[in-house]
Amino acid sequence: MRVTISEARSMYTNYMEEIRAQRQELTKQLKEAEKQGMDGGRYDRVELTKRLEVLDAKLEDAFQKREEVIAQETLIHNAIAGQQEAEAMAEGMEDMLKCLEVARRISQGEKVPASDEKKLMDFNKDLYMAAKNMAFLRAAQEKKTKEHDSLWEEEQEEEQVDPHEVATNTEINVEPIEPLEGAGETAPAPVE
Length: 192
Known about the structure:
By secondary structure, the protein is mostly helical.
């Protein structure tokens, strides 16, 4: 059965709640049987204990499966967040390299667009001032300057993906849930 991680987590949680409710009812019946004694009780103590053990095993199994689903969700979330972080770092490094190139060009006495100068100044004022001082010293030595186009092309902003949304909506394979005995209903269906 293919469901999203969010649906699987919800499905197992609901199933566990149903098991707990049945377990609570059986425990209540067992206590009533103990109060009335072995002869006067309506329920067989051994049968109730066996049913409780079955429910406990189903509860543990559902808990483990839900934990596996949560672990998958966390792995997907962390992978996407890590990828976004790496992309942001790469973009920052690219901007830093562009600023260093702008500073080099300015220090060589070459003309660069005002927008590039502003980005360099925003990045590092000291580097900007050092480049301008170098350009001033070179200007006295050279008369010819070279003009450049902007290093920052029109960059389109990419829409960031929400790691949690992708992780919770990723489809996974899960084992179907067995219906509980005496519930009268089947296991909760995944949300569509």
